[in-house]
Write a sequence for this structure.
């Protein structure tokens, strides 16, 4: 640009020199999708804020499940309180098979009781792809063993597992030691239950 007289000294612009609303999204060089659901990061890219903890599910039983002393049984969780992506099978295999790969937090609780005699322990296990997994045990001491029918003991656990989103699955198993034991259900889901959700990474 040509000037008559002395060339003006260049002075950097400050934020106060730019009128509010002057720079539009289309004027930015950032990569990514620019819309109302994204934010501009420090690396000059647009990214979605937050995320969803899905797939997610919570399942429970509709009735007591009979078992035998010390036997390890898959829990027949035939009631779903929610199943965001239809990943839990509550009618045949009673298993969760996610459609999205990632890390998942799984939690479970199980209550067992002896219909007669003594309840010795309740073991709750989460198994991935049918193999032995993490478990937790409730055990009576000698002075606390139940001597009348109907009393129960509870165990619970939680675990983070990496799931591939194609063939990996998880199931809930229980082992109850005692006389004529059963896996107990409650209509509010507080006795025996199994749930999980994908962790936002």
């Amino acid at each position: 640009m040509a000037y008559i007289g002395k060339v003006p000294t260049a002075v950097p612009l400050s934020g106060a020199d730019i009128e509010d609303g002057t720079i539009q999204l289309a004027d930015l060089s950032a990569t990514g999708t620019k819309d109302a659901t994204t934010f501009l990061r420090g690396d000059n890219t647009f990214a979605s804020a937050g995320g969803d903890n899905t797939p997610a599910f919570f399942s429970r039983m509709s009735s007591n499940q009979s078992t035998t002393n010390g036997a390890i049984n898959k829990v027949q969780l035939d009631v779903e309180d929610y199943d965001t992506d239809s990943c839990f099978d509550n009618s045949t295999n009673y298993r969760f098979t996610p459609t999205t790969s990632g890390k998942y937090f799984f939690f479970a609780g199980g209550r067992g009781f002896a219909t007669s005699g003594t309840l010795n322990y309740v073991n709750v296990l989460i198994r991935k792809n049918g193999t032995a997994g993490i478990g937790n045990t409730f055990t009576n001491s000698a002075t606390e063993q139940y001597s009348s029918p109907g009393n129960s003991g509870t165990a619970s656990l939680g675990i983070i597992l990496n799931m591939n989103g194609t063939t990996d699955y998880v199931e809930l198993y229980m082992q109850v030691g005692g006389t004529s034991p059963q896996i107990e259900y409650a209509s509010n889901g507080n006795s025996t239950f199994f749930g999980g959700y994908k962790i936002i990474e």
Q: What stands out?
A: The chain has a mean pLDDT of 85. The chain has one domain: 56-198. The CA atoms of residues 66 and 78 lie 15 Å apart.
